[in-house]
Amino acid sequence: xxxxxxxxxxxxxxxxxxLLEVGAAGGIAKATGGDPVKQSQxxxxxxxxxxxxxxKLAERHGKGIRLTEPGxxxxxxxxxxxxxxxxxxxxxxxxxxxFRIGASATFIRQFLLPVVSDLTAIGKATRYAVETVSDAAxxxxxxxxxxxxxxxxxxxxxxxxxxxxxxxxxxKLWAPRSLYSNEKAAATAFKLHQLPLxxxxxxxxxxxxxxxxxxxxxxxxxxxxxxxTAMEKHALAxxxxxxxxTAVNSRRYLAVRIPALESARFHFHLAWNPRLLRLNPPAVxxxxxxxxxxxxxxxxx
Length: 301
Known about the structure:
Blueprint: H1 3-6, H2 13-25, H3 28-31, H4 36-53, E1 58-61, E2 64-67, H5 69-93, E3 97-103, H6 105-116, H7 119-122, E4 126-132, H8 135-144, E5 149-152, E6 162-169, E7 171-176, H9 183-191, E8 197-200, H10 206-211, E9 219-221, H11 224-230, E10 237-241, E11 253-256, H12 259-262, E12 266-272, H13 274-279, H14 282-295
Parallel strand pairs: 3-4, 3-5, 8-9, 8-10
Antiparallel strand pairs: 1-2, 5-12, 6-12, 7-10, 7-11
């Protein structure tokens, strides 16, 4: 079955590892930490893979290199294969399992860290690595198997990735009392597009950004955590999911009822690649643990 594949030299685990590292780093120099000897080795190994498969696997891009489409496909195949071998080895040696989770900075701080830092709940043989990752990057990295799980606000995701709803929260508009004496005045300012808004651009779901499209923000932040910090000056309004209500100083801010916002829902979903579960069966228990624990958090509707 594999006679043709194995009949000539040029294919090896070391060469495939070099391709993966160069593709992930975006360049040979970055992948090798500037080591000239290793740079020469990686360059030669990728060239040998290109000669073996008779296709261009990497190309120059700016000051670095990027993988071509065949290169990215070979990287995906290689990562799948090497992850399978690595998981098999850890199982044979009874080593601890490590799982990478990507989520927004706010979700990590508000929900994820309390869960994965509870050593009595996660067990001694499990280790988590948490990364701040955008929804788009979560989807791509789940496909590439460089993340084990992701928490996303996306309502749909490309196959074969799968989603499970962790719960829904309402949204609230908060306006500073220093600018508006009552809720009606703040609601009128919002209607007239005069409210000085601070928005969490990377964490607001697309549906909510559409609702606010006619309300140019005074301040654009990356995360809800940054928005709350900006609100400490008591001069900016903000739209926040209600699980962050306790972080808002109610003596300084008014909760303003905006029907269009209150009818919307802010969802988080646990996402994963089912190929991972086939590669690493213990990941099924980790997925179920994360879903059960996170879906049971206070504030889910």
